[in-house]
Amino acid sequence: MPLNQTIVRSHDRTNMKTLQDRIALVTGATAYIGRAAALELARRGAHVVVNGRNAHSGHAVVDEIQSAGGRAEFEAADLTDREAVRAMVGRIVQRHGRLDVLVASGAGASSDSLAFKLFMEMEGADFETYIRSHWLSRAHAIQAAAAAMRAQRHGKIVAIGTDAGRVATVGESFIGGATGGMMQMCRVLARELGRDGIRINAVAMSYIWDAEPRWGGGSPALAGAHGQGMIDNLRKRMLFPVHCADIAQAAAFFAGPESDAITGQTLSVNGGLSTPG
Q1: How many domains would you assign to the chain?
Q2: Which of 5, 98, 176, 179 lies 20 to 30 angstroms, CA to CA, from 108?
Q3: What is the CATH number of the domain that holds 115?
Q4: Coiled-coil region(s) at which residues (predicted)?
Q5: Is the per-residue pLDDT at 6 higher than 50?
Q6: Structural domain containing residue 187
Q7: In this prediction, what percent of the chain has a pLDDT beyond 70?
Q8: How far is CA 189 from CA 165, 183, 199, 202, in A?
């Protein structure tokens, strides 16, 4: 096949409804990366369940999807509350009979999350906050979704994390440590859940150009204006800008049939900031 035809066919496929009629849950979908993922999955034909704690923002994303001709609904649940997440997934399965896709985002960069903090300046409560937001929030969603997917012996799970889980970064010992644990968990689960026809992969990112940082409580030596010093340094080191839509495209790839032969992998979408192996 001529190269130009191959390119055209590849481009056409990205515009096909590759997720037509799939039931997809996107956690933390009320803003930024989660919102972008919800919009992209809906564009590809999925019926998207938009999750978040803020009902007003969640319904705004649902309206945005429906205005574009897609299908969506809102489900409220705190991702750090295991029982609330399990109940949410139960309601989804009760309404739709199944759950096909999970994109586990959110919690890690919400307004009540800690930012860059030097290890020796942390309190014990800080450790728990990082672990809950960057790891346990994903674990709760993945466990609940996988329980539903096992019944149909098929499912796609995508966990969104940070490259701090792959690359040692000053000020992100527990952000990176918790995310690194989450990524290792996903690699193990790829083996465990694969027997049930479930694929699980991760997308890692660094600075996102169109996502306003919402953290507070970082170390003064690193933070400047709420982390602005570290953020400016990241921007300078990146070769290409990365936007929420770029992370969403990667998540949609892992959610769709194009990635059926891939599981247990982490894809860094970081604009060339680093090249982890």
Answers
A1: 1
A2: 98
A3: 3.40.50.720
A4: none
A5: no
A6: 3-267
A7: 86
A8: 17, 10, 9, 12
**Is residue 222 domain-resident?**
yes
Whole-number mean pLDDT of the chain? 89
Looking at the domain assignment, is residue 277 inside a domain?
A: no
Asked if residue 273 belongs to a domain, the reply is no
Q: Residue 69: left if φ>0, alpha if ψ -120 to 50, beta else—which one?
A: left
Whether residue 215 has pLDDT greater than 70: no
What pTM did the predictor assign? Answer: 0.90
- pLDDT one-digit tens code per residue, 65-92: 999 999 999 999 999 999 999 999 999 9
Q: What is the pLDDT of residue 11?
A: 44
How many residues comprise the chain? 277
Residue 272 lies in a domain: no
